[in-house]
Structure to design on (149 residues):
């Protein structure tokens, strides 16, 4: 980085009073294919594609992930319940502290879930949903954002 670039960035940070974010890794970890594949392994999950968008600034990281999938056995609610537990485990294993957790459904049949967490000087949120279309294909959506407190 050139000295003038450093000076301009440092000046901007001082003038705006904003804190630069240190990335915890949680947003990318909870939206990884491996997490949903492990959660749905016993149900014979097959990922058929999807999309991912990521926005990273000096002060925020947002990751939105969508999967299209099928499962051989069980229900979408059972899959989302297992994925919810995997997301919670990922947050806490990376040093995150849950401040709020909620879900719609029962512990073994989840239609929607969310977590708020703190990590170091950051706070973040994860929200997940799942549904079945008319052809029987699953649509699983998760969004995670993290920013300085």
């Amino acid at each position: 980085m050139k000295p003038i670039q450093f000076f301009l960035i440092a000046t901007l940070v001082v003038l705006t009073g904003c804190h630069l974010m240190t990335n915890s890794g949680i947003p990318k970890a909870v939206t990884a294919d491996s997490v949903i594949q492990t959660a749905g392994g016993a149900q014979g999950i097959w990922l058929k594609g999807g999309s991912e968008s990521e926005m990273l600034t000096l002060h925020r990281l947002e990751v939105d992930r969508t999967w299209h999938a099928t499962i051989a056995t069980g229900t979408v609610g059972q899959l989302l319940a297992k994925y919810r537990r995997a997301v919670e485990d990922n947050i806490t294993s990376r040093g995150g502290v849950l401040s709020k957790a909620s879900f719609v459904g029962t512990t073994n049949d989840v239609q929607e879930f969310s977590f708020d967490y703190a990590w170091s000087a950051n706070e973040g949120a994860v929200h997940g949903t799942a549904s079945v279309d008319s052809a029987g294909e699953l649509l699983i959506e998760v969004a995670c954002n993290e920013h300085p407190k």
